[in-house]
Design a protein that fits this description.
The protein is an alpha+beta fold. It has nine helices and ten strands.
């Protein structure tokens, strides 16, 4: 139960749909439990039962699949105001969680118990809309991942990934080859080879633990090829 008016106001700011129905907002504050998770904590594993639905108020969560070979494929990330569509689907269908969820930073979230998630879907229109929008938004994300893996060349995917990453003032990305491979669902050796190819055309410069982007236009052309 969330009793503190100041915390309630912060929650409504992060979850604006709560203001659409005052009765539901009151029930939400009664049912929700505020949880805090440290960075790099795995809090959902494949095969686990879903005891509740977490709505993120602060921090980042990565949801991914782990293959038999040990390779990882990122399905999507969750940030403030978001929740996990796979958890919602598992709760509604009463099936185990089919992926892995790990925090990428310290996370604060509101946990709604599974029986109440079911009850609210029947009882409150605003909650049904939240769940349905959650499903539709994340379904697009997952389909995009599948299309990327199935139909797009790895060099184009790598170029897009490099362009999307935040850099410092010198256009340097502080990231390892293994971290990129994990994100793109391939082997480190594949990423290292492609980065060497990019470096041979002076598109990037490789350094220990970092990648300097020398020619963003060339990367854009590669990403669109």
């Amino acid at each position: 139960m969330i009793k503190d008016p100041e915390i309630q106001a912060q929650i409504r700011q992060k979850l604006p749909f709560l203001d659409e129905d005052k009765t539901f907002c009151t029930e939400f504050m009664k049912a929700a439990t505020l949880i805090k998770l440290p960075s790099q904590q795995c809090f959902m594993e494949e095969g686990m039962a879903c005891s509740g639905l977490a709505l993120i108020t602060d921090g980042k969560v990565r949801v991914y699949k782990l293959g038999e070979s040990g390779r990882e494929i990122t399905l999507y990330r969750l940030g403030s105001g978001e929740s996990c569509v796979l958890t919602a689907s598992c709760i509604m269908s009463n099936i185990p969680f089919p992926a892995i969820a790990v925090t990428e930073s310290e996370v604060k979230a509101l946990l709604i118990p599974t029986p109440i998630v079911h009850q609210w879907v029947d009882q409150y229109k605003v909650w049904r809309q939240f769940i349905f929008e959650l499903v539709s938004q994340r379904l697009v994300d997952v389909i995009t991942v599948i299309e990327e893996i199935a139909f797009r060349r790895m060099d184009a995917r790598l170029a897009s990934y490099l362009l999307e990453q935040p850099s410092d003032g010198n256009s340097a990305l502080h990231i390892t080859h293994q971290a990129i491979a994990t994100e793109l669902g391939t082997a480190r050796e594949v990423i290292s080879r492609l980065l060497k190819d990019f470096e041979s055309t002076d598109t990037i410069t490789l350094a220990r633990g970092s990648i300097v982007l020398n020619n963003r236009d060339h990367l854009k052309m590669k990403a669109e090829s």
